Amino acid sequence: MTAADDPQIDAIADALGRLRGLRRPGPGPQHAAHAQGPFGGHAGHGPHGHRGGPFADGRGRMAGLARLRMLEALAAASHPLSVSEIGEAIGVDQPRASRLVQQAVELDLVRREADPDDARRTRIALTDEGRGFARSVRGERRAALGSALDGFTDDERAELARLLTKLADAWPRG
Question: pTM for this structure?
Fold first, then answer.
């Protein structure tokens, strides 16, 4: 079975993603430059080791970990999300979520659209480019996770998925 069709990898990746999104907003390492990016290398570099692109803030700094979590949250949602819902989903406060949305709009990764239930509110939806980017990163992460789990037995993968899901379910909220 390949990483692309292994349901245990999906379960592990989903639990890890949920745990990443449960970080508490406020000062701390998730808001500072990280020593390592999600794909290795210095956090000021993109997923392929270069500055710029959807992972950087224009000055080469890593703004993309939270932006990536935002894109993943939008990709997983069944409908466009409000800025507040995005903040809650990725563990940042509303002003930070608003800045991330604005940056992603400028990069053509998301678009604002009117809320059909309340014209005073806007919802945030992925653009085709944003959807493709999120899918690409998810594929890279699945491949890396599949490689890391190569030495695990099927039973060990199932147990890891079970335990990570249990941890994500039990993690204190706010």
Answer: 0.62
